[in-house]
Specification:
The complex is a heterodimer of chains A (261) and B (78). The longest helix of chain A has 17 residues, at 240-256. The radius of gyration of chain A is 17 Å and the shape is globular. Chain A has helices spanning 3-11, 18-27, 32-47, 65-68, 112-115, 240-256; strands at 54-58, 85-87, 90-93, 96-99, 105-111, 120-127, 135-142, 152-156, 159-163, 170-172, 178-185, 188-193, 196-201, 211-214, 228-235. Chain A is α+β, with helices and mostly antiparallel strands and 261 residues long. In chain A, 23% of the residues lie in helices and 32% in strands. Chain A is built from 6 helices and 15 strands. Chain B has a 4-stranded antiparallel sheet. The radius of gyration of chain B is 13 Å and the shape is elongated. Chain B has 78 residues and is α+β, with helices and mostly antiparallel strands. The A-B interface holds A 65-66, 69, 85-91, 100-105, 134, 147-148, 154, 156, 161, 163, 168-169, 217-218, 220-223 and B 2, 19, 21-28, 35-40, 68, 70-78.
Chain lengths: 261, 78
Amino acid sequence: MSRYYRSFLEESGVAYTSRTTAFATATGITDTTILGALNTFDLGLISNSLDTKMKAVYPFVGGTAATHKYNFMDSRDLDVAFRLTLFGGWTHTSKGIVGSGTNNYANTNLNALTHTSASDNSFSIYKQNNSTINECYIRAGYPVQSSNGTTEIISYNSSTYILSSGTAEKSIVDVSKGFYMVNRNSNNLSLFKNTTKTSFTDAFTTQYNGNYIIGNGTDVNNYATNNTLSFIHIGSKLTDGEQTIFYNLIQDMQTTLARNI
Amino acid sequence: MIAIITQQQKDILVGKTYDGICYFNPILDLNDNFVISEIEYYYCLGLWYLDELQTDLQFITTLSLSEYLPKIVENPFV
C-alpha cells in the first residue's frame, strides 16, 4: 500500500475492512461515501457469512473504466483475480457501467466450468433502466455459438429469461429496472426480481468451458446491452433467507450511492 | 450510431485499447461491414484534438457516423 493511501485511510478515522482497503488502494478511490458504502456492504457479507459465497463482485463505483474493472472480492489487477477485460463501446458514470448497445462486452475471466459448480451457483445484476431492446446482462460460458444450455440473464421479446442448463428457457414477464438474480441449487432453479422469487425445476448439466461475460450475449454481438449496470456478482448458491439479506445489502449500498431503484 | 471501417482498419484496431483499458471491438453489421461504436470514435477524436492519438489510429478521425444496422437477432431459445 502506498504511503499516500495508508495515510489517507488512517486519517479518515474509519476502520475499513481489508477488502475495502485493498479496493481503495487498487482503484485510487478516496471518496468516503463510496468507501463507506463498500465497507458497510462488506461488513454485512462477513457478518452473514456471505463473503465466502462470493467469487466476484463488481460494484461499478468511481465512474471510470479504471475503477469499474476491479473485482471487489480480489482487487488485484490480474485476470486470475477476475478483473474485467472490457471490449467495445462502454461509458462510465457514477451510476455504473453503460453499454452502447452495439459492440460492448466485458470478460470476467471467470471460467464457468472451472470456477463454478453446475449444481451450485448464483449470479445477479442491478440495472438502472427498463429493457427496451433485446439484451444480455450476464452469461456463463463465452464464446459459445449456440445459446441453448447456457446460463444467462437476458431480455428478449419483452420478457426476462434465464436460459439455463436444462433444455428449456425459464422466463418471467418483467423487463423493469432493478435487481435480478439467478440461483441454482441442484435441480431447483430460481429467478429473483428484487426479493420476489419465481421457482423452476430444471435438471442441471455440465457448465460450459468458457468465461462469464457481461453486457452481451453471443460472439456475434447481437445482444449488446444499452443499460446501466450498477452491480454484478457471481458466486455460490444462496438460501432464500440469504438472498433477502444479500439484496438488502446491495440495496443499502445503492441507496448510499444515491442510485437505488 | 457507428462508424464503418474496412477490413484492413479492423485488423489495425484488434488488440488495441482506445483508452488504455477498453479494447476496440469491431463487429459486423447487417450488411457485413465492420463497424465500431460512436464511443470508440469520439474517444479517439478527443485524443486527436489533444494531439495524443497514436499515428496508426489517425484514420479514425476521417470516419463518419451513421445509423447502426444490427444483424437480425436470433432467437436464443432454439
